[in-house]
Every structure is written in C-alpha cells, then in structure tokens.
C-alpha cells in the first residue's frame, strides 16, 4: 500500500492538523507561553506543550515567525551542548521537524532524528508543529533522555531556503527551573513588551508619579 504519511491506512481528515488545545494546559499536558498575558497557541510569541503518551513524549510548538521554532534541552540555562528539536518552514511551504545539537552558539544538524509522527503547518504567519520522541534513548551525546529533568530553551527565528538562521531576540526565554515530563504545569512568561512595569521598583515609581500628579506641585 502507498505511504500517505498518516499513521493509519485511512483517508486523511479534512483538516490534517488539529489545532493545539490550551484548555488541557496544566491538566493533561504541560505548557509554556511567552508573549502577551492571556495568549494562547495561536497568539503567543512562542508556545510549547508536552505530554507523555506511552513510551513517547508528544511536543507541540508554535511561534510568530515564518521561519522556524525550536525547543532545546539543556543541563544549564545557557546555549551550548544542547539537544534541540526544530520545526522549519521551507521554501516549498512544508514544515519539517529537524534535530540539532548546539555547538557553542552554533546549531549543527544531526542526521539521527528521534522525531516520529511528525506534522506541521504554516498559517497566519506562524510555524506550528507536533511530533513525538521517545522518553528513553540509547546513550547518545546529542539525544537526551527525557525521563530526566532539563532546562528548556525556547527559540524561534527566520529561515533562508529552509535553513535556520539566528533567533529573533538576543536573549531567548528559558524555563526558570528544570522541567519534568512527569509534572504538568501551565507557565506564562511575559515578553519584553509586557515586562516594563513588572518589577517592584517600577511599581513604586508608578505610585510615586501618581501621587505627585494627584497632589500637584506647590
């Protein structure tokens, strides 16, 4: 029989890519959202979800970009020596799932790709994808065991002829603590545009300015 790219020999659905559900975040899957408060998988600057399915972990990624979106698994919060899965929008309109290994600040593509059940779409200037990879893998420097906890590195950026280039922002977001696939959280991280007044100093400054304006000058 022909290989259609679908896991079962049935006719493909009308919409082959099911939209990412955020109602499940923190319940049946873990989520990270970066962007505007209250954003979802279609409006966040960056979105990632993970959930265990048997011997696999299913990941869903989406970002406001026409190039690529990725997640890195790191032993620290810095880029370098990291296992990276990226969803790349190529010139033919397809979204391919690729495996990289960060060598310093440079991402090297690794031919051994642990992704399976891959699917992706480019719509509304967003790259969105879904794939699974095994929880356990044979000892391999470039592929980590996901049953262990790692810092998650979140990145996205442009692509040139299907090849990734430097990420969009100088300091991409990183999970505050190591992430366990056995614990489902729903974590929101405000993007730079929404961090302006989040510090205690800024809040005190706002209070002081408000008091000054209300009282007026002598």
Overview of this protein structure:
- This protein has 218 residues and is mainly β.
- The protein has one domain: Immunoglobulin-like (Sandwich), CATH 2.60.40.
- The chain is built from one helix and 13 strands.
- It starts with 29 loop residues before the first strand and ends with a helix.
Over all CA atoms, what is the radius of gyration? 20 Å
Order of helices and strands: EEEEEEEEEEEEEH
- Number of E-state strands: 13
The shape, in one word, is globular
Number of domains: 1
Strand content: 35-45%
CATH class: Mainly Beta
Number of helices: 1
Tags for this entry?
218 residues; mainly beta; Immunoglobulin-like; six-stranded mixed sheet; five-stranded antiparallel sheet; 13 strands; 7% helix; globular; disordered N terminus
Question: Which helices and strands, and how do they pair?
Answer:
Elements: E1 30-35, E2 46-53, E3 56-63, E4 68-74, E5 83-89, E6 95-103, E7 106-109, E8 116-123, E9 126-134, E10 151-157, E11 159-160, E12 163-164, E13 186-190, H1 200-215
Parallel strand pairs: 1-13
Antiparallel strand pairs: 1-2, 2-3, 3-9, 4-5, 4-10, 5-6, 6-7, 8-9, 11-12
Please sum up the structure shown.
This protein is mostly beta strands.
């Amino acid at each position: 029989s022909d290989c259609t790219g679908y896991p079962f020999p049935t006719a493909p659905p009308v919409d082959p890519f099911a939209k990412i559900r955020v109602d499940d975040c923190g319940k049946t899957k873990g989520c990270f959202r970066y962007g505007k408060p209250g954003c979802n998988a279609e409006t966040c600057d960056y979105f990632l979800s993970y959930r265990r399915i048997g011997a696999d972990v299913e990941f869903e990624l989406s970002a406001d970009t026409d190039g690529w979106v990725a997640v890195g698994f790191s032993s620290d919060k810095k880029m370098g020596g990291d296992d990276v899965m990226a969803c790349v929008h190529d010139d033919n309109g397809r979204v391919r799932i690729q495996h990289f290994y960060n060598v310093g600040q440079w991402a090297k593509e690794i031919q051994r790709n642990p992704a399976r059940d891959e699917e992706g779409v480019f719509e509304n200037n967003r790259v969105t994808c879904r794939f699974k990879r095994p929880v356990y893998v044979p000892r391999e420097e470039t592929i980590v065991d996901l049953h262990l906890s790692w810092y998650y590195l979140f990145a996205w950026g442009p692509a040139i002829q299907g090849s990734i280039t430097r990420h969009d922002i100088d300091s991409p977001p990183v999970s505050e603590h190591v992430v366990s696939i056995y614990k489902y959280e729903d974590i929101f991280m405000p993007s730079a545009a929404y961090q302006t007044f989040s510090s205690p100093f800024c809040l005190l400054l706002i209070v002081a300015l408000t008091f000054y304006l209300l009282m007026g000058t002598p």
